[in-house]
Design brief:
Layout (H helix, E strand, L loop, with lengths): L9 H4 L18 E12 H11 L3 E5 L4 H4 L2 E7 L4 E4 L4 E18 L2 E21 L5 E12 L4 E3 L4 E3 L1 H26 L3 H11 L3 E4 L4 E12 L3 E2 L3 E16 L16 E2 L6 E11 H12 L3 E4 L2 E13 L2 E10 L3 E12 L4 E12 L9 H15 L2 E2 L1 H15 L7 E18 L2 E16 L3
Parallel strand pairs: 1-23, 11-14
Antiparallel strand pairs: 1-13, 2-3, 3-5, 4-5, 5-6, 6-7, 8-9, 10-11, 11-13, 12-13, 15-23, 16-17, 17-18, 18-19, 19-20, 20-21, 22-23
Length: 453
């Protein structure tokens, strides 16, 4: 049974589009709370297949002439084509069972009988009410809804034609009552999701490797599940599933697994969930890459200060507490090392991670050059603030691509996902020992289609 696994595909849905440093620095990324909302579609053909596989073609057989008070009647009932399900308007299913019936009747007295048989067809109808319990079980109540004769049963004894509709209906009504219990038993067995909830929860709460190259691990901790009431349509059942999770990314050693559960907690019924959801992911820009960007922009560039030249001969980027430090070595009119630090923020207009609240410090051995510090300070700070930035478009495109690839896969046979990212942008910038971490907010939609239940 694949249905319940949709609830816990959050382990694959929480995708991290991440660039990592070549140095395997052990760092635990922030623990992020996310909420995923997924419209779920269950084609009734899947439930129909389940019922058809549990009901044999030969539904009923009476091979005795003498039972039922010596009724001198035999009957066999077959399914002529697959049982069909249609969604009702009150959280119910209308079930249609087409039947072919062979009947044989004996007419006579004093133990001498003449037998004649006939074959005819009818359609049997049922109404099944579904009640999805928040303990992951579905309770059904199936009631008979009568027959529709395609051809009525008549025995032809030559000069005498004997209708046997009443005899057949009596047997079929008895079997229809029993068939109601069979449907409910099969539904209760096949649609008991508790065991699958426990299995999926324990499997997907295991940390899994999302980057072998950089030894990066993702650990997902489900918090709770919200489900909207089931909506029944002619050919499908719809619902929305909302999942609150904590996601954590680790580099280095594999983190410890969460404690396994023995029973799945009850989910919450909620009247409405938004179709779109917000998913937070992270992307890491190592300081080696930030340094490479700075060198491409500024290395060997010359600037005028009081009619003289100042040339940047070396530059590197690293972190100091909660600030990004740019260390620039210069020669010419100002010879020494300049230290420009700032708090990294995301500039949506520039599509870059830039520095704000910048501070400046100059170290030089020439005391005379210190008179040019104020002029040089204003020039280099303006240069850094105006020109330096870590482009995020590539990060955003990579994250969008990886998320949409994860959203458009068939992870299990019969379970298809279809999703789209509408908006994706960094909203918070954090520092770690090896680089800069961008927390990315992602607005997306995801739809799940279940086939082959």
């Amino acid at each position: 049974m694949k249905f319940i696994k949709i609830v816990f595909l959050l382990a694959f849905i929480t995708v991290f589009g991440q660039n990592s440093s070549n140095q395997l620095v052990v760092y635990n990324f922030p623990k992020i709370k996310s909420s995923i909302t997924m419209p779920v579609t269950i084609p009734l053909s899947g439930i129909s297949n389940m019922i058809n596989s549990s009901v044999k073609d030969l539904i009923y057989q009476d091979d005795s002439y003498t039972d039922n008070n010596n009724d001198q009647f035999k009957v066999k009932v077959w399914k002529t084509r697959p049982i069909r399900l249609v969604g009702g308007t009150n959280q119910n299913l209308l079930i249609e069972v087409p039947l072919k019936i062979w009947a044989e009747k004996g007419i006579g007295t004093l133990g001498v009988y003449s037998y004649q048989n006939t074959t005819f067809e009818t359609v049997m109808y049922f109404n099944t009410a579904l009640n999805f319990k928040n303990n992951w079980t579905i309770v059904t109540n199936t009631q008979p809804m009568g027959f529709k004769w395609v051809t009525k049963p008549v025995l032809d004894f030559g000069k005498i034609e004997i209708p046997i509709t009443s005899l057949v209906e009596k047997s079929l009504k008895e079997q229809q009552e029993k068939f109601c219990k069979t449907i409910d038993q099969q539904m209760a067995t096949q649609l008991n999701f508790q065991q699958y909830a426990v299995m999926a929860w324990n499997v997907f709460s295991q940390p899994f490797n999302i980057s072998e190259e950089y030894n990066t691990w993702l650990k997902v901790t489900p918090v709770n599940v919200n489900i909207t009431p089931l909506k029944f349509y002619g050919n499908q059942i719809d619902t929305n599933i909302g999942i609150d999770i904590y996601s954590e990314t680790f580099t280095g050693s594999k983190p410890e697994s969460s404690q396994p559960i023995k029973s799945a907690a009850n989910f919450n019924f909620i009247p409405l969930l938004a179709d779109k959801f917000l998913l937070q992911t992270t992307a890491n820009v190592p300081f080696t890459e930030a340094t490479s960007i700075a060198r491409n922009m500024f290395l060997n560039k010359e600037y005028d200060v009081r009619g003289s030249k100042v040339k940047i001969t070396d530059i590197k980027v690293y972190g100091v507490e909660n600030r990004v430090m740019i260390e620039a070595e210069t020669e010419g009119y100002v010879k020494g090392k300049s230290f420009i630090s700032g708090i990294p923020v995301y500039d949506e207009t520039k599509k870059k991670i830039v520095l704000s609240n910048t501070k400046f410090n100059l170290k030089t051995a020439n005391i005379l050059q210190k008179t040019a510090t104020l002029l040089f300070r204003g020039k280099i700070i303006k240069m850094i603030e105006d020109e330096y930035g870590i482009p995020t478009q590539e990060l955003e495109h990579a994250s969008k691509k990886s998320i949409e690839e994860a959203f458009n896969k068939e992870y299990y046979k019969g379970l298809k996902m279809n999703g789209k990212v509408f908006n994706l942008k960094p909203t918070n910038i954090l520092l770690n020992p090896s680089g800069i971490t961008a927390v990315i907010d992602t607005n997306a939609t995801l739809k799940l289609m279940i086939n082959g239940i």
